[in-house]
Here is the input.
Amino acid sequence: MRVLVSDSSVLLEMAKRGLLPAMFRLPFEFVVPDLLFEEELIDLGEYTRDDLRSFGLRVEGLDPVGVTTALSYQARRRRLSLVDCFALALASRRGYRLLTGDKAMRSFAEAEAIEVNGVLWLVDEMIAANVVPAGDVLAVLIAMRDDPRCHLPGHELASRIDLLSR
Here is the structure.
């Protein structure tokens, strides 16, 4: 089973849209670094960190080499937070795929040859696995489009909305 390391932006977006339970029905294992779990997953709306664990989220720590890797990432790319660098190091060191909604993190992951996907890919996977009805996905995508705090690529969002509207 493919393991996906999520940053906080993906989990927060899925929580905001009510898609966390569906996300964990996908045929993937979801993991976050312990630092991210403790420091960034504080306000998940109607969900709690205990809910995340009950859905199947794994929390993993980094070994000393992983911590050194994370610190070297942060030294090289100051725009990334330490928590982001822990997620990157976890993905890199363990051969996991990264899930992020952050452009800088995605760019760095690609430069480091870390496989990376985002929120829209995850939504596509939910549609393909039929874990969320298409009408519900359409409503979520429209809400994302209309949310000024949601920073997904507009053209990709529009094409998915158009496809599901047919």
